[in-house]
Design a protein that fits this description.
Rossmann fold, 7-stranded mixed sheet, 16 helices
Length: 498
């Protein structure tokens, strides 16, 4: 099929004036730090070691081989020094299948970026052919290599580590990533060969003397003081990884026609017009009944967690399939979590060019009308039409995210909100008599997402139609494009009778 064939290759040609990719997913300061790559064949404990060193649960860990596929970045600290840590998928250099070959390519990128390499082997098993092939590859790299013989929980097992000297490396260190044994020795040896770097505190010094924002003043963040986290969410195979590659101008994530290729979340920081965007490619979210493998279930859980940690979410829709019930469910996750939402109709070129099935090309106005009808609760979300694989209109994503992120953090003063109340004709809300109330005044209590507190004369729950009416009036007056709006009720206290 044409769609499947297109997914097998990431975009190679960068558009003119593409944004600057900041290699690893850290900020400007971390990008200058030395790197340590963790490599090894599948299921030897690389992700467990990565999580142990970074003190996070960034990489998904499980008994199933091949869980990690893309490059995962983290930060490791040792005795006052820091380095970038790169987790890679299980490497099988001789496997020509699509996914293993792409994992190997991602690992090669990590090896090129790294100043030192940690090769993880399973000390409880015999050396396998992939171990030997990888060892030969690392020897040709010319970089310091430290063999971490993993799963060495006892002294008797640690003695077996010497049997792996046949790999030809000088530094052979028994460790237990799960129990934290031998980690100090591994870090001591690894950091000894890394280049010295001076700590960069310019950013901290720049903000040290700035006064705090006045709670009553509108929030207008400058472009450089806030890194916008953008989660790319959607069903499997809608083009999330392809979009990440298009936005970064590189093959940052593995792209294939196989559903569920992405498991760990892959992120990259892109600087565009002096603003930092951290794009996070999450795993495709499936229905619970469709997730059977442990890795798939964990990847969905991690996708939800990364969504909740983001500022803005890009909800990807496959234009060839239209908005499905699962698309609406995923959009509901973003809405309920308070994330700002931008609906992205991907693969738009496939439905606007000449159709082989005899159907006429799609009309954008009609398509958007149908999509918004299926996503009624996301009526506030901007909608973009693009082709990630062709790189068409992808530059519009940056401006849309910038605008939505600013709207998300907008604050309206109490005086302005009360002037707004005087202009609104609440008779048009059409409330039942039991739910009627009068808003005495209102104030904005929070941003990201905006939350308004209504001080009322009656202690009744806000009727859904009244809430929708008030939200529409607020959006018409102040914007808040792309972000959900929340309300809280505070009723006037009743006077106690004497």
């Amino acid at each position: 099929m044409r769609t499947a064939a297109r997914k097998q290759s990431a975009r190679r040609k960068s558009p003119a004036g593409r944004p600057a990719l900041r290699g690893a997913p850290q900020g400007a300061q971390e990008n200058t730090l030395p790197g340590i790559a963790i490599v090894g064949r599948p299921n030897v404990g690389k992700s467990t070691l990565f999580n142990r060193l970074t003190r996070t649960r960034r990489s998904i860990v499980g008994d199933e081989p091949g869980i990690t596929r893309d490059r995962i970045y983290g930060m490791v600290e040792w005795q006052g020094r820091r380095a970038r840590l790169i987790d890679t998928g299980g490497v099988v250099p001789t496997d020509a299948a699509l996914i293993p070959a792409e994992i190997f390519r991602q690992a090669q990128v990590a090896l090129e970026e790294a100043h030192a390499i940690v090769m993880v082997v399973d000390g409880r098993t015999e050396l396998a052919a992939p171990d030997i092939d990888l060892a030969r590859l690392l020897q040709r790299s010319g970089k310091p290599v430290f063999v971490a013989v993993n799963k060495m929980e006892t002294d008797a097992l640690q003695a077996q580590a010497e049997n792996l000297r046949s790999l030809g490396f000088e530094h052979m260190l028994p460790v237990s990533a799960e129990h934290g044994l031998g980690i100090a020795e591994l870090m001591e040896a690894g950091f000894a060969v890394l280049p010295q770097t001076e700590p960069e505190n310019e950013a901290e010094e720049a903000f040290a003397g700035e006064p705090e924002e006045d709670a009553e003043m509108p929030v207008r963040p400058s472009p450089m003081q806030h890194e916008v986290k953008v989660a790319i969410i959607g069903r499997p195979n809608v083009g999330k990884s392809t979009l990440l590659n298009a936005l970064t101008g590189s093959a940052r994530a593995i792209v294939s026609p196989i559903a569920g290729t992405t498991r760990d979340a892959v992120d990259a920081v892109v600087t565009h017009n002096e603003m930092d965007f951290r794009f996070i490619d999450t795993a495709g979210i499936r229905r619970k009944g469709k997730t059977t493998l442990m890795a798939e279930k964990l990847s969905v859980v991690m996708a939800r967690k990364h969504l909740e940690a983001a500022d803005v979410s890009l909800l990807l829709i496959d234009a060839t399939e239209g908005v499905t019930a699962l698309d609406a469910t995923i959009g509901g996750y973003a809405h309920e979590s308070g994330r700002s939402v931008i609906v992205v109709i991907n693969k738009w070129d496939l439905v606007t060019t000449a159709r082989t099935d005899g159907k006429p090309p799609a009309d954008r106005t009609i398509y958007e009308e149908q999509a918004r009808h299926a996503l009624k609760f996301l009526g506030y979300a901007p909608m973009l039409f693009l082709s990630a694989v062709e790189g068409r209109q992808t530059s519009r994503v940056f401006e849309a995210v910038r605008r939505v992120a600013a709207e998300r953090r907008k604050r309206i003063s109490t005086a302005e909100m009360n002037r707004f109340l005087e202009r609104v004709d609440f008779e048009r809300a059409g409330l039942p008599s039991s739910k009627q109330m009068r808003i005495l005044y209102m104030t904005q209590a929070a941003v990201a997402p905006p939350m308004f507190v209504l001080f009322t004369d009656r202690d009744v729950k806000l009727h859904f139609s009244y809430e929708r009416f008030l939200e529409n009036q607020i959006r018409a007056a102040f914007g808040f494009s792309g972000t959900p709006v929340r309300f809280k009720i505070r009723a006037r206290k009743k006077k106690t009778e004497r």
